[in-house]
Structure formats: structure tokens, C-alpha cells
Write a structure and sequence with these properties.
By secondary structure, the protein is mainly alpha-helical. The chain has one domain. Helix content is 52%, strand content 0%. It is built from two helices and no strands. It is flat. The N and C termini lie close together (11 Å).
Length: 42
């Protein structure tokens, strides 16, 4: 299980940009923002 300090914003940013270019949805369970939202909720 990840702890709040395990979230790496730079890695998230790279994955988000890659997801946007590949047509990945922004929201939803598999969306681009899901990892960041999970981090804030935990």
C-alpha cells in the first residue's frame, strides 16, 4: 500500500501528458486524474 509520501507529482505529470496524447479519458476509474484523486483522498 502506498503512503501519502509515495506520490510523485513529476511521474504523475509525465503519465498524464502521455495519457492525453494517447486519448485516455480524464476522469473515471482508469482516467488520467485517478491516481492524483486517490492520493488526495487517502
Amino acid at each position: 500500500m502506498q503512503t501519502p509520501t509515495d506520490f510523485n507529482f513529476e511521474d504523475f505529470q509525465k503519465e498524464a501528458i502521455k495519457g492525453l496524447y494517447s486519448g485516455k479519458p480524464l476522469t473515471g476509474e482508469d482516467g488520467i486524474f485517478a491516481p492524483m484523486l486517490k492520493h488526495f483522498l487517502e
